Amino acid sequence: MRRARTWLPGLLLVTPSIIAIGVFVYGMLGWNFRLAMTDKHDEVSEGNFVGLKNFVDIWDQPRWHISVSHAIMFTVVFVLGALALGWLLAFLMEKGIRGEGTFRAIYLFPMAISFVATGIVWRWLMNSGMEQRAVGLNRLFDWIGLPQWQWFRDPDWGMAAMALPAIWQMSGYIMALFLAGFRGVPEELREAARVDGCTEWGVYRYVVLPMLRPVTLSALIILGHISLKVFDLIVAVSGKQIITDVPAVFMWVAVFDSHDPAKGATIASYIVLSVAVFVIPYLIWSVRKERRP
Amino acid sequence: MRRRWLAAVAITMASVLGLAGCGGSGGGTASPAATGGGDAKKQVEVFSWWTGPGEADGLKAMREIFEKGNPTYTFFDAAVAGGSGDKAKALLQSKLQADTPPDTFQGHAGAELQGYIKAGDLEDLNSLYDELKLKDVFPTQLIDQISVDGKIYSVPVNIHRSNVLWFNPAVLKDAGVAAAPKSIDEFIAALEKVKAKGKIPLSIGSEWTVVHLMESVLLGSLGTDAYNALFKPGANWGSPEVTKALNSFKTILSYAGDPQDDWQPAAKQVADGEAAFNIMGDWAYGYFHNPPDGGLGKKSKTDFDWAPSPGTEGTYLWLSDSFTLPKGAKNRDGALAWLKVAASKEGQDAFNPKKGSIPARKDADQSLYTDYLADALKDWSSNKLAGSVQHGVSVNQPWLASITEAVGLFIGSKDVAALQKGLVDAATANAQ
């Protein structure tokens, strides 16, 4: 009885969450995968089990190839860009800039804005009009004599431009992560390195950076899963046009325009799987680390 | 110990209630019942995508007539913003699937409604049509186009025209183009002349405006009968005639300027004299003509002018907004009262001059429709009819999504063969 008193209140506390997550996350995930394995290609049909047919068939669609390659380009530019910029900002902060608090707040502010608001502002900034018709960044580039660009409407590199607002929004957060990481490196270690004749660059290269590996990994996971699921930003900037198509937008079109639930579920499954590729190794790694004494 | 128990139970209860609360408020956005309390029964929830200048004014005018004639009902405006009803349709679909339909919703008359009909979401309105003798006041061709197995599921409020070529007379004069081009070949020649003058020959907006352009080119190149046949059983989208039309489409698209964000900025390029031509539906007239708080305040015939899009003279490529009666509407009588206003001469004559469209009824008061609308009214009664693709008359929503996808891929690849294959596949998969 006494033992029950120790664990039961705790269990009761978390039970609602467990039930809610069980139903609304894992239950829905399971339901989605089941739907993806049926031929329910309109809303009224029953849907028979067809196995992995939908998962194979989708690779015959030219649009799927486009949206996958867009997602890859977006992810690479966004993740590397946000990591590099966040690291640089944290590095500058760490060097003891005056008014650090103010700068930190300024860089973190974009985090408080939704992707939709960011997207609407950047849609204007990245307007593809040139020369007399230029507005936004192209107008600025025109004034200072830099080459103008079609931005997200560029047929080859448009998705790299699409990553810019995302970098703008998330790099402050990455900066905060890295800054905490930098501060977590004991001053004694740096001093020891300096005493051993290490240059300032060497201190970062051989002492600080290796200790930041867990932070970098967390940042990578956070950015990676945001990037693979990106939807709101794309829709706010360009709507659901194929020139900026990504799997999440394709999924939306499949469900609400094409009225094809099975296809939408298939795309959703691929998005979940691609995020899982990022997250599961991280979970395994962190669980192992916690078990270590 | 007891207190800890109590606390645990209290927190558990609170979190369960919190969850339930979240669920309730999440699903109940814009639900009139949540706010109405005792009056909820008398509310009529009217779902539309009329939020822009002109269209919202028209809705308001119709609402005033409705409230005057039906003092026991209050009008609940459940409009969702977004051109062509993109976002509204997605929200509507989730409401229908949850069996909480609005009392009446806007839909493009024609094939677009077929998905809802097939899913059993709509009540047929034949009794209403008989009661009000609506079959006598709407054009026969229109009644045919919106009937499914002899049943009619919606009340058309207005008629828009899709195949309108808007142009800037000054730019044309400057380029040496004497009049609006009457055929696809003349159109291409005119585009070339404008290009030589350094202006944008043809302005375009986002992806859907290119689909809109394609339907006008298809109609202009194929002719009305061949165009209409494309949407009948056994249609041949793979024919050499379609190939020829699509090649013209490719040529025309090569004269297009940078894509603008939506149709308004593209139309504005014509009004501002930056571009010569734009093919857009006649809702652009209100945008050109209305005073600056909602439009551009331009003078018709001098700042901008119009003609049927090249090769389509004598044909009205139409679309129509209509209202429906969903099964399980909370206030069915209220919805019927609304449909009666929407079908009435008084309601249509209040709505249409503001919205910039012509009434679906044949007996409208002609004096209310001036300038462009007078032209449209004249053409509507004399022209042959063809149904729009982009605006839901000829194809249902999945078919349109496939066509949009094929055109979207074509914008990137400029591959006519792939576009035609995409259109053939779309027709095979979706033809009714």
User: First CA to last CA of chain B: what distance?
Assistant: 70 Å
Instruction: List the uncertain runs of chain B.
Output: 18-39
Whole-number tally of structural domains of chain A? 1
Q: Could you give the distance between the termini of chain A? A: 32 Å
The parts of chain A where pLDDT drops under 50 for at least 5 residues are none
Mean pLDDT of chain B: 88
CATH superfamily of chain A: MetI-like
Largest interface: A-B, 39 and 37 residues
Salient structural properties:
heterodimer; A: about 290 residues; mainly alpha; MetI-like fold; flat; B: about 425 residues; alpha/beta; D-Maltodextrin-Binding Protein, domain 2; 2 domains; 5-stranded mixed sheet; 4-stranded mixed sheet; 20 helices; about 15% strand
How would you portray this structure in words?
The complex is a heterodimer of chains A (293) and B (432). By secondary structure, chain A is mainly alpha-helical. Helices cover 73% and strands 0% of the residues of chain A. Chain A has 13 helices and no strands. In chain A, α3 (62-94) runs parallel beside α7 (158-183) and α12 (247-257) packs antiparallel against α13 (261-291). The two termini of chain A are 32 Å apart. With 432 residues, chain B is of the alpha/beta class. Chain B folds into two domains: 42-159 and 320-380, Periplasmic binding protein-like II (D-Maltodextrin-Binding Protein, domain 2, 3-Layer(aba) Sandwich); 164-317 and 389-430, 3-Layer(aba) Sandwich (D-Maltodextrin-Binding Protein, domain 2). Chain B is built from 20 helices and 15 strands. Chain B has helices at 2-27, 32-36, 55-69, 86-97, 114-118, 126-132, 134-137, 140-146, 169-175, 184-196, 207-222, 224-229, 240-253, 263-271, 283-289, 332-343, 345-355, 372-382, 397-413, 416-430, and strands at 43-47, 74-77, 104-108, 147-148, 151-152, 154-156, 158-161, 164-167, 200-202, 275-279, 305-308, 315-319, 321-324, 358-359, 384-387. In chain B, α11 (207-222) crosses α19. Chain B is globular and about 75 Å long.
